Amino acid sequence: MTKINPKNTIEIVRMYTQEKLSSLKIAKIIGVSKYTILRCLMNNEIKRRSNSESNKGRIGNRRINLTPEQQEEAIRLYSKEFLSTNEIHKKYNLPERPIIRLLKEKGLFKGYNNRMRQLRENGKV
Fold first, then answer.
1. Cα–Cα–Cα angle for 101, 72, 60, nearest 5°?
2. What is the pLDDT tens value at each position of the chain, 125 positions in all?
3. Spatial separation of the C-alpha atoms in residues 73 and 17, rounded to whole Å
4. H or E, element range at 82
5. H or E element that contains 15
């Protein structure tokens, strides 16, 4: 494992404060443990972010919005072609959650049992 030197310390502080990287991601980049990064930040009087602050702007936790074109296409695929939310999300390479949220906002997503009933009524199952 790499030892923390003054050059690494500056880079660690920059990645944590400006790039908003997690201590775990920084640790993987530098080649040390997460706890070494946290100790380095503490020694440099860098306040540790709360969970809610850490989650802001991260792709895994941020609210992903579909473009208007993607919204129209997702609605069309779901309501006209009867694709599942899983099939739609794979088409856009996005998490399934934004698609479900969009369909709920439009009053189209009612859950699994209602969807199966709708598919049976339209001869898709």
1. 40
2. 567 888 889 999 998 888 888 888 899 888 899 999 999 999 999 988 876 666 554 455 556 677 888 889 989 998 888 888 888 888 878 778 888 888 888 888 877 777 777 777 877 76
3. 38
4. none
5. helix 6-17
Q: Which residues of 72-105 are buried (b: 16+ CB within 10 A; e: fewer)?
A: eebbebbeeeebebeebbeebebeeebbbebbee
> Two tokens at 75?
């609605």
Question: What tokens appear for 1 in the block?
Answer: 């494992």
Using alpha carbons, select from 124, 78, 121, 118 the residue that is nearest to residue 102: 78
CA 19, 24, 25, 27 torsion: positive or negative? positive
Q: Which residue has the tokens 């609605």?
A: 75
